[in-house]
């Protein structure tokens, strides 16, 4: 599926996004750490033409510029800025992992802008033990004169990240994220976000991969404590959109269909 790549500027930073187009209702999609807008290409195709999916390369990811900070407020402000840039008053917002936290915080802090929420494996409380599971990326090189030098510098991690390097306009090569930014961002997404999760009043879908990051008891509490929330569990890992793309698309499509009928009884 083709998409239009566009960008706008916020506080001197360039934010890039993909607009998959169409005349359907707008759906804002927010990716997780070390990912980018293009990860939602399959979902955009599955939901077309009923939904116009718009996916943001969040700060420090993909083709968007790095930021001075990776605070909760900063990520949410970027999402609001994109909606303003596009002239969209109200959207459904979908987020995975980091993007899921950003999505439900957007819904909590700007309820007039969000009509419904899809949270793909983003806990309401995470990282309180101080452990940063993404610290390993600090061993990755960020840039090199050639693609091969960058891949060679990854060592054993090239099997996971070797497909990511991209050429810059000046001919050098880099990752689509800076490892230091990822670690800082992960540190700042940790915390007890129950107040934000429970503050949202719009209909919500929680997609929980059984081998993901949300413990089963926390997921059930997230559904039980927040009115108008349903859950779908999929037998896959944290990267649910890639591990079970059909199941992921089907769960989202069913939820969005029920939005139109008003049948949002939690399951």
Tell me what the structure shows.
- With 267 residues, the chain is of the alpha/beta class.
- The chain has a single domain, classed as Rossmann fold (3-Layer(aba) Sandwich).
- It is 35% helix and 25% strand.
- It contains 10 helices and 13 strands.
- α1 crosses α10 and α2 crosses α3.
- The longest helix is centred in the last third of the chain and has 17 residues.
- The protein starts with a strand and ends in a 6-residue tail after the last helix.
Helix/strand layout:
Elements: E1 4-10, E2 13-19, E3 25-30, H1 41-47, E4 51-56, H2 72-86, E5 91-96, H3 98-109, E6 114-120, E7 125-126, E8 143-144, H4 147-153, H5 158-161, E9 166-167, E10 173-174, H6 179-189, E11 191-192, H7 194-199, E12 204-211, H8 216-225, E13 229-237, H9 240-243, H10 245-261
Helix pairs in contact: 1-10, 2-3
Strand order in the sheet with the most strands: 1-2-4-3-5-6-12-13
Proportion of residues in β-strands? 15-25%
* Annotated CATH topology: Rossmann fold
CATH class term: Alpha Beta
Helix content: 25-40%
Spell the H/E element sequence. EEEHEHEHEEEHHEEHEHEHEHH
Q: Which structural class is indicated by helix and strand composition?
A: alpha/beta
Q: CATH-wise, what's the superfamily?
A: Alpha/Beta hydrolase fold, catalytic domain
Specify the number of helices. Answer: 10
Uncertain regions spanning at least 5 consecutive residues? 263-267
> Outline, from the CA principal axes?
globular
Intertermini distance: 32 Å
* C-alpha-based Rg, rounded: 18 Å
Per CATH, the architecture is: 3-Layer(aba) Sandwich
């Amino acid at each position: 599926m083709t998409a239009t790549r566009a960008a706008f500027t916020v506080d001197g930073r360039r934010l890039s996004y993909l607009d998959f187009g169409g005349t359907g209702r707008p759906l804002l999609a927010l990716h997780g750490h070390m990912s980018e807008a293009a990860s939602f290409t399959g979902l955009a195709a599955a939901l077309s033409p009923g939904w116009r999916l718009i996916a943001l390369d969040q700060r420090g990811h993909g083709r968007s510029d790095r930021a001075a900070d990776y605070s909760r407020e900063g990520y949410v402000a970027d999402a609001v800025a994109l909606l303003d840039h596009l002239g969209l008053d109200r959207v459904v917002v979908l987020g995975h992992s980091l993007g899921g936290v950003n999505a439900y915080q957007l819904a909590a802090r700007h309820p007039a802008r969000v009509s419904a929420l899809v949270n793909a494996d983003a806990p309401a409380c995470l990282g309180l033990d101080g452990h940063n599971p993404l610290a390993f990326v600090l061993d990755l090189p960020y840039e090199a004169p050639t693609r091969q030098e960058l891949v060679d510098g990854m060592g054993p991690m090239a099997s996971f990240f070797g497909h990511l390097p991209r050429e810059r306009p000046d001919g050098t090569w880099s990752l689509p994220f800076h490892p230091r930014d990822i670690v800082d961002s992960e540190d700042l997404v940790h915390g007890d976000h129950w107040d934000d999760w429970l503050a949202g009043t719009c209909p919500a879908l929680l997609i929980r991969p059984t081998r993901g990051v949300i413990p089963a008891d926390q997921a059930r509490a997230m559904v039980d404590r927040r009115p108008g929330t349903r859950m779908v569990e999929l037998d896959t890992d944290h990267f649910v959109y890639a591990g079970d793309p059909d199941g992921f698309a089907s769960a989202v499509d069913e939820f969005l269909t029920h939005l139109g009928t008003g049948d949002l009884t939690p399951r």
